[in-house]
Batch of 2 targets.
Target 1
Amino acid sequence: MIPSNKAPWLCCAFLLLLPATVALAGEAKSGYEYIKPASRAMQDDDFANPGLLAVERGQVLFNSKQHGTGKACAACHGGDGAGLDAKNIARYPVYNEDAADIVTLQQQISRCREHNAGSKPLPTDHPELVDLETFVRNRAIGAAVNVQTDGPMAELLQAGKQLYNTRYGLIDMACYHCHELYPGQMIRGQKISQGQGNGFPAYRLGTGEITNLHQRIQQCLSLMRAEPFAADSEEIRLLGLYIMSRSNGLKIETPAVRY
Amino acid sequence: MQLYKKLILALLACLPLSGMASGQDGLPDDYCRWNVVEYAIVEPLCGLAGDVQRGREIASDGYRGNCLACHELPIPGIEAYGTIGPPLTGIAARLSVPMIRLRVVDTRNINPMSIMPGFYRDPRLINRPGEAYRGRTFLTAQQVEDVIAYMATLK
């Protein structure tokens, strides 16, 4: 018998623990497992996957002197990006000691363009940067996502998780609600996925556009009738980091086909 | 006191029940207060009467109620239902109208972890609403009563 004076607290503790136990039960599954068979077939066929167009555009940019002087990415990394290390790409977002901050793959590409090739800076998520990001990430297709979770990252991931578990917008749901509690259930005609990051940038059937993870988070927040976090905001970068860390071990599928 | 009664009291202690939507500063002028009694809202919002036909339309409308996103509903010709919430066929045989009203208005008075949006939740409790949605409820009081009138027919 539970002592009467403890009952309320035990009950509260139970309510708080319940979701945690549900979340612990699952293993990471790629969004590929949740999309319809026709969408899987589209992703698997290089001639049918519209995301490959972004890879091709990215490769053209990679091989050209963009916006100014300097040199093409290909001058150092090879025309097909063969000089890039797939295992290193799979580690992004990474922690940069000098900046004492996280660096996303797109930020790294931007830095490289500006510092090593002297190109004119482009705003975050400019279509050309997304194409370059798609091309570079695609070089690591098949590599396992491997985001650092210890050291200085631990605290940042905790902050990202807190944002992930926060409700947003008039629809008032957290990322957590759909992507931790209800993967596999139907929302109207679509199966809810775990919201993993391993396929991004991905071609979205819902919008017909190549979309990186940060853009996808913004679109999800807009769908929640919430004010999306800005492209460069601390919040979107922490959310992106946390989501990618949930994908650790999943193989990179860029460009995946997703709803 | 028996244990189950204590547990119920404990639940009550955990939840922000009546009073959370009581008229304080910052509420839109047309927002009607509501009170929770015994896990239910007895009085119709703003004293309004609902319309069954309008309620059915709101429930199946993808932008307004969009109940179908998460729930099965006995509406012919619709094939894709969500499976997140319980089916609503027969809901009025399981719950009284005041109990349905609380679940539509703000079900987190019953389950704080619920994924279900509060369709007439106190707008001040909404985090980061989009610009177009600030100070608004998901549905109007009339729309909520329409949906409830429709739900009451699902026996």
Target 2
Amino acid sequence: MLELIMNDILGTPSILVGLFALIGLLLQRKSSADVVSGTLKTVMGFIIIGAGAAVLIGALDIFSKMFDHAFNVQGVIPNNEAIVAAAQSDFGTSTALIMVFGMVVNVLLARFTPFKYIFLTGHHTLFMACLLAVTLSVGGLSGFPLILVGSILLGVCMVLFPALLQPYVRKITGSDDFAIGHFGTIGYFVSATVGKWFGNKEKTTEQIKVPKSLGFLRDTSVAVSLTMTMFFVIVALFAGQNYIETELSGGSNFIVFSFIQAITFAAGVYIILAGVRMLIAEIVPAFKGIADKVAPNTKPALDCPTIFPFAPNAVIIGFLFSFLAGLLSMFLLPALGLKVIVPGLVPHFFTGAAAGVFGNATGGRRGAMLGSFANGLIISFLPAILLVFLGDVGFEGTTFGDSDFGVVGLLILSVMKLLGLS
Amino acid sequence: MKKIMVVCGNGLGSSFIMEMNVKKALTEMGKTAEVDHTDLASAKTVQADIFLGAADIVGQLDDGTRTIVTLENMMSIPEITSKLTSHL
């Protein structure tokens, strides 16, 4: 009986998160219909993530093979959804436990310390929980100590990163109503600092005319399909028709095959996003409801697009300059003996755009350009360096994208190495 | 009952926050409506009475037949209330 509970119920991450949703819904005294549908949807969300991973990993595997054959160096696509989905089979239970207990630590810190932030970006909580589960276990922890250390670190991340940005967020929004809770913080902080040093905030981006035609890239599905098609077809041309048609595509035309694989990758991301949306739909409101009661007078820390409307031009400029840095890094990384980080439109759009807004707040248009360029370098180099430290944990071809995952992962792995744990 | 669909690029973070704020605004107004959130690609395929979000996102849904409401400050309950009143 105990074995059934420990292994099959608590050891199955989808059931575990379902249980947490159930408890959250019961604590909020929801109607029985809401409790049943909310619990079932949370379990389903987790299973959808796994289904999306299966779709995406097939395409990713083919991309890696083509890239390796074409350039003799490993190409890696940083994509949080992909790596978290891929890691669920081995790290699902510890990810789910760290996520929920990390939220508890967040509420306690907001209640009893001066760091009054409640981190509401649920998908980033999930991603950071997964990063902690993976790095701590590579570092040598397991079982109860892994969950304990992971939850404390997650809770600390959930208040420290928003606190670091808050002075700049006040500058951008002109109020102290909310904070930014998004694990691209280090990139934004560097951008704001670069803007302060090299920019002139009087010459804001909002005085210049920027073409609005890039707006269609705000659509994640379009952005992923477009970049993946570009990179797949270019890599296919270098890998050669003969290799692809004999080794990978089973005879069908190499360009058509690459296009379909690119869209398959995008379809996988779309499925995973739908799963994540379902998974966090009950957990985040429950978290917020409990936090409002236990820790009043706290600030919500929100996803980065909440600051986009405050400087729409900086959003476009930030994306372009971050992506430019990503493209440049693609050539620099192999020269330094690191794996090639293929720049994605999505991470550059979200974190580049936000970095642009922060850079603009401290240094105007020059701040937005230089700051988001710096962000682009950071989100290219940090994942590449993290991969060196992570070693072979069995995730071929993908890794964590945003800057804070890289910083936290590297800190954990180096501290554990110093302590002689790994 | 009216259906309000809140939209953002990924359909994960900011649309979710706006959804919670819309629900809060509705409660304050004493109105009821079905509120949900999604990403831009999916929004093009769903039916709703009102589509709500940042201007550069929901602007792309404006085909002349949809009712579009744009927000400047996604956290401002007064802004949500004033912009939704005329549509409910």
